[in-house]
DNA sequence: GACTCTTGTGTGAACGGTCACATCAGCGCA
DNA sequence: TGCGCTGATGTGACCGTTCACACAAGAGTC
């Protein structure tokens, strides 16, 4: 296939007048090589354009630096941004990143998942914000080194290989913001949970309502897209024509909510306050600009990689922590009237 | 690291009572194996849970089925959607997909690029809608099998390894739509071009104006995000307070345009028509819902993979073609007054 | 019945690295 | 002078697979 043979370690050795093993030592940063020899070898490497053969290295038992990211739909903001964070951190550390995309709607089975591993024992990072990811995480063989970005901290059985953002607290703060504006209660357009339990963001919303001594209306569940948000929002407005404030599971749902409100003749924020989640690049430019919670998905991706890296090599450097969730108040939330709540 | 050794081809051979070579034949679908033997081997494979070792296979000279996607920012709609298409098609064909993310703002250099290749000769797909991607494509060593998703067909020197969507015609149609609504002229909020030449979408816009015998106003160049669209839109409205129709390079720019229009007190579509490009999932839910052009990025991704596959193996199956660009008329475009143009 | 030809199977040598061990020179020290 | 130690380098085996080739057994041909 290739016309010119790639140079091997033995070609370099010949060019530098040393044995192939010495070349191997130079490549792997072994101490025991005389400075002059090292330089000669490095010159030869440069001149020949030598690069170590990955396959040979792996076959010979050297731990190879690669990982696979398992994620659903890469066009969702959270997934895409986390992926970017992982890729950047991984590349900086010299890891090759493979990717395997799950169908968001179909539950993966163990056999299929096993087949997705590039090789047995390939390290993985699972983006498990949704049910497909969470299920994949459960099904992964036990001998695979893995870390995961999860929606919720596992309450009873904390797993040190999981990382997450404090969605719950963030949702509480966003809800408090709305209550503080004078709304009698806050409705919830919820994201599907990744587990059988209530989504974290929904929990946080409940926390704030409980704390304020307000009865929580039943949340309405949407999907992940503006389309599903729009449908769910219609249901919500139908069921609760007197709603004055809605917390949405993400910015895309909020976008659907804004449209449904417009269609129902409810002005935002005058008659209805809407708060989103994620702070997508679009949110500041919507009409009205969306009040939302900024989440550091990129940082979370970096963190998940750092964790995996230390799992594989305990001497790997630590990671700077991700940014705290931050409420960004824009135009879509306003004072709640003193009227019906 | 792993407690249990993975079974090798020799383990399978022993279990089936044949030589390792026969096992290799079965794995690779060689004709010359007796039916009974084949079955025995396959049973052994199943029982032992044997999977071929990728590295050994590659080292022994077997073409290994993997590819690397080179792309900038994975959170942009076009990139993310194309990536999804590539990944899906590749996985179906048994390829492992690696990913390498370029900085959209920094030009890659040849040395760095070479280092990104998982191995010399690794097949690649470059998503080259922007300048970073286009530059990377140029710098790739000649011996790498590569296909690319490009912004524009290379006019003079058509490269059969490139695929693209007919942005130009699509832009012409969108512009005709606006002219057909009675607008005297159409302004352009342009995407940065991937090359030194004018962006395809901008060309298409020019085509339509020329065809209608209308003088083309100078296009205003934005970036890729709502933020950059907003900035550029302000400039555009400043320079051309009498504009009644604007074609935007993508939906995110259009979003920025919508906001700038609102801030300038220009009602859309009554006083100003805005048309986007891409049909992102959000566009139908914006206020007003965006008239835009639907582009089949996912199909383009699949096509680019099919092309690469056939480059590597001429007997690989053909691909179904991508969908034609389609103008989706929604609320953001309306009749142009007979007043100032 | 000796000859090809086909079919099914086995053997040895790569592929390009790493690892464990062997070797060798130079040094300090009794 | 001879011993052990240390630092620098070389040698052989091996990782799990494929490839090229050798070989045995049976069928078809003259």
TrEMBL record, chains A, B:
The keyword DNA-binding applies. Residues 316-341 are annotated as: Disordered. Coiled coil: none annotated. CDD domains: HTH_LacI, PBP1_LacI. It comes from the Bacteria. InterPro entries: HTH_LacI, LacI/GalR-like_sensor, Lambda_DNA-bd_dom_sf, Peripla_BP_I. Keywords: DNA-binding, Transcription, Transcription regulation. Residues 7-61 form the HTH lacI-type domain. The keyword Transcription regulation applies. One of its GO terms (molecular function) is DNA binding. PANTHER family: HTH-TYPE TRANSCRIPTIONAL REGULATOR GALS, LACI-RELATED TRANSCRIPTIONAL REPRESSOR. This is LacI family DNA-binding transcriptional regulator.
């Amino acid at each position: 296939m290739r016309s010119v043979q790639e140079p091997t370690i033995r070609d370099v050795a010949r060019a530098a007048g040393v044995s192939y093993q010495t070349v191997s030592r130079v490549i792997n940063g072994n101490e025991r090589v005389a400075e002059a020899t090292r330089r000669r070898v490095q010159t030869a490497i440069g001149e020949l354009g030598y690069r170590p053969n990955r396959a040979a290295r792996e076959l010979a038992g050297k731990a190879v630096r690669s990982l696979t990211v398992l994620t659903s739909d890469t066009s969702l903001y959270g997934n895409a941004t986390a992926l970017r964070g992982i890729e950047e951190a991984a590349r900086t550390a010299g890891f090759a990143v493979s990717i395997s995309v799950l169908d968001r709607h179909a539950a993966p089975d163990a056999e299929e998942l096993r087949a997705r591993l590039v090789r047995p024992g390939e390290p993985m990072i699972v983006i498990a914000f949704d049910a497909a990811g969470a299920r994949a995480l459960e099904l992964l063989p036990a001998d695979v080194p893995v870390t995961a970005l999860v929606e919720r901290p596992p309450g009873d059985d904390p797993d040190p290989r999981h990382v997450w953002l404090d969605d719950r607290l963030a949702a509480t703060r966003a809800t408090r913001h709305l209550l503080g504006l004078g709304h009698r209660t806050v409705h919830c357009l919820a994201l599907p949970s990744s587990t059988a339990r209530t989504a974290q963001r929904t929990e946080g919303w409940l926390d704030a309502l409980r704390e304020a001594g307000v009865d929580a209306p039943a949340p309405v569940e949407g999907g992940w897209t503006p389309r599903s948000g729009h449908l769910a929002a219609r249901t919500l407005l139908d069921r609760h024509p007197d709603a004055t404030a809605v917390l949405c599971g993400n910015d895309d749902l909020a976008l659907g909510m804004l449209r449904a409100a417009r269609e129902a003749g409810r002005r935002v924020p005058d008659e209805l306050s809407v708060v989103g989640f994620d702070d997508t690049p679009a949110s500041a430019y919507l009409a009205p600009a969306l009040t939302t919670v900024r989440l550091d998905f990129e940082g979370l991706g970096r963190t998940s990689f750092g964790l995996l890296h230390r799992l594989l090599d305990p001497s790997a450097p630590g990671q700077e922590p991700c940014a705290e969730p931050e409420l960004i108040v824009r135009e879509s939330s306003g004072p709640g009237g003193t009227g019906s709540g």
